[in-house]
Amino acid sequence: MKINVDRNVVELRPENAQETSSLEVLWRIIVDCVKDNKRLNPIGEFVPTKENLARFVIEGLPGGKTEWSSVEVVTDCTVYCAICNKYMNIKSGQEYPLCCGRIMETMD
Asked: In this structure, are residues 81 and 99 in contact, taking their beta carbons and an 8 Å threshold?
């Protein structure tokens, strides 16, 4: 992923299909054409010599890591939450994620 910062504009340019897919998921979560867009706020610290990872929280979404059900996916697919409109790409053999208290639905 290439990141270009020009004053108050940040450009993210994916360099492979997985990054493109992840950026698309992030875009769908953050951008809301009807209401206000959500914001990314930094959490923790970014010290590359310590850990080369930057974390952000999406303002306005319930927190925590993704919880998984015990039901496995048969083929690669995209799932979504009909309540909060969250999207995820999951691989065959992974378990369906839970979101907003229920199993996410398959889009395909």
From this structure: yes
What burial class does residue 19 get, using C-beta atoms within 10 Å of its C-beta: 0-12 exposed, 13-18 middle, 19+ buried?
A: middle
Non-local (6+) Cβ contacts of 59 within 8 A are 38, 39, 40, 41
Question: What pTM was computed for the model?
Answer: 0.56
Answer yes or no: are the C-beta atoms of 33 and 17 closer than 8 Å. Answer: no
Structure tokens at 3: 């990141």
Longest CA pairwise span in the chain (Å): 46
- Residues 58-69: tens digit of each pLDDT: 887 776 677 889
The DSSP annotation for the chain comes to -EEEEETTEEEEE--SHHHHHHHHHHHHHH--SSSPPP-EEEES---TTT-S--EEEETTS--SPPEEEEEEPSS-EEEE-TTT--EEEE-TTSEEEEETTEEPEE--
